Amino acid sequence: TRVPPTNPEGMPVVPPQDLASRPRRNRRSQTVRKAFQETILTPDNFIYPIFVHDEGDENIPIGSMPGQDRLSFKTGMIKKVAEARAAGVNQVVVFPKTPDRLKTPCGKEAFNPQGLAQRSISLLKDTFPDLEVYTDVALDPYNTLGHDGMVRSDGVILNDETVYYLCQQAVSQARAGADVISPSDMMDGRVGAIRQALDDEGFTHVSIMSYTAKYNSAYYGPFREALDSAPPPGSEGWKIPKDKAEYQMDPANVRECLRESALDEAEGADIMMVKPAGAYLDIIKMLKDNTTLPISAYQVSGEYSMLKAAAAAGYLNERAAVLESLMAIKRAGADLTLTYYAIDAARWLQDS
Ligand code: PBG
Known about the structure:
Family: Belongs to the ALAD family.
Mean pLDDT: 96
Oligomer: single chain
CATH architecture: Alpha-Beta Barrel
Shape: elongated
Organism: Bathycoccus prasinos
Radius of gyration: 23 Å
Low-confidence stretches: none
Number of helices: 11
Protein name: Delta-aminolevulinic acid dehydratase
CATH class: Alpha Beta
Keywords: Chlorophyll biosynthesis, Heme biosynthesis, Lyase, Porphyrin biosynthesis
CATH superfamily: Aldolase class I
Order of helices and strands: HEEEHEHEEEHEHEHHEHEHHEH
Bound molecules: ligand PBG
Pathway: Porphyrin-containing compound metabolism; protoporphyrin-IX biosynthesis; coproporphyrinogen-III from 5-aminolevulinate: step 1/4
């Protein structure tokens, strides 16, 4: 029989409240708290997005994303991915930086078998055969007009013609050894067309992670700086839509995401993505409740930059805030999270 501790001096002595239920009992120790933790972060769920360039041997820092570089093809990229694997992160998505001289209005570099994306995928798979390599399918890093689809001179973004090119891009990535093809372009019908194109070429084992609910978001700004892929102002006789609102979803909308997801499921997607993540937790939750497919969420460049900036200013504890943000994304229903913090977070999880 233990004696209850006495009150510190000066504390009022009050009779206990008559409470049957005291939720704090289940929070009373670290062991108990851990036992009841509903969401557990693990690096197994992280996908690390990498930027790759082929203009020399040095990594090139990305100004608006402190701590992230455009990695040099070969040395920088292999070193960084080895680092990720050592921390327990075994999934990457590859974004090549296309030099201006290789950009054309249609973005044909996207399916050049010797393109930087294709060479990066091959080198990664040759070096790390069990690494899961995801690719991005869209034309914006490869064309002069900065749009995910082809832009006609009158400013119309061509859907079906774009899908025709996206299929070639997807097949070229599968030939290079990609494990998962991720269309981020938001053209109609692209998942089904890509599935068919992959199957026709014998790539039935290659998965598709569809950017199902990709919002027309201001949080992609730093990414567009990293790849220099923002739509330019219109030039001689060429009208260029100033943003991506014609194909990316309106941040005001929820139900549209169910429509997109029904299509993606029917068209053969293996994984469905919500993007951005932090400001769209309700969308993650809704999608999770309405599908049996795994859900991924992309903590995008702007989310990373905000956390970095607040941490650098001393306004936030970076480690705690980042782990909390990743926890929230998983709690909302994300099975996979794409995050530029993957390596840091994996390390923080290791030593906690
Ligand atoms: C390409 C693409 C974008 C991102 C991923 N794939 C940019 C865009 O749609 O403008 C953004 C990722 C990020 O901001 O981290 N279509």
